[in-house]
Structure formats: C-alpha cells, structure tokens
Amino acid sequence: MSAGVMACSSSYQLDPGPLDRSVLIAQHTHRSRDIWDGKPDMILNTRKCDGNFWKLVKEYPIHQRVLDVIICAGFYGVYRSCRPSIDRSLITSLVERWRPETHTFHFRSGEATVTLQDVEVLYGLPVDGDAVIGYEPTRSIEQWHDGMMVELVDL
C-alpha cells in the first residue's frame, strides 16, 4: 500500500503531540486541546483598543511638532504602520500553535519565536538601552511625565 493511500485510510491516526508529552504541562487548558479532541474549528473573537484614534488622525492630522516628538522618541515606525487589519483566522491559527511552556510557535517545519529584534525591524522601534518597566505608585503623574520626557526625548 502506498503512503498516499495509507494517509487516506480511516485507520490512519495522526498524533499531533510531541514524543515526550511531559513537556506540555499546560495541555489540559491549551487551545489546541479542542483540535486534539476533534471539536470543530472555532475562530477566536478579537478586540482592538485603538478606539477612534485612526479616524481622528485622518480627520485631524497630527501636527508636525507632535510628529517630531514621536520621531525623536523612536515611535514613528509604529505610527507609520497605521491601522492594522485583523486576520482572525491567522490569529486563531497562531494561538493554536503557541506553546507557553517553551515560548515558541510549533509548526510542521519546526519551532519559531518572535524576538525583540524582530519587533525592532518590523516597527523600527529602538530596543537598545534601559527598559521601560513597571509602575511605581510612589511617583506622581508629574514625576512620571518628567522622567519619561528626559528618558525618551532628552527634554
């Protein structure tokens, strides 16, 4: 029997799991569990939180002085990318392939991950220097503002 016929036969069972199942410590709650159990595909709902920002930008273009600050802070690549379109099927497919245990996507061709350098290249964001981290409740809004202005744009 040829491999093609074998793959089409009803006795052929595809096991999508790894050889060592102990690495999948979160499999019982993972999205891919539905696929393994033969449940029908469900496209995930997505939500965007940009509100009417891009509509407002189209209606009232950002002033050049504000753009200069965005450029100086290194966020112009994000601004220039405009309103992203959401491909729910692609997002669903990626969620199904993401493994939180290893922080990687699992594809037929192997594992892949998104690095900080990937984000830097795609959006032109500077990733060198100190990280902007956390929230300090002891700092006032003015202290945060002044600190970020110094840190981001040397003002």
From TrEMBL:
Signal peptide: none
InterPro entries xrefs: AminoTfrase-like_pln_mobile, MAIN-like
Swiss-Prot/TrEMBL GO biological process terms: meristem maintenance
Domain Aminotransferase-like plant mobile: 74-138
Entry protein name: Mutator transposase-like polypeptide
Lineage per the UniProt record: Eukaryota, Viridiplantae, Streptophyta, Embryophyta, Tracheophyta
Organism of provenance: Petunia hybrida
Matches recorded under Pfam families: PMD (PF10536)
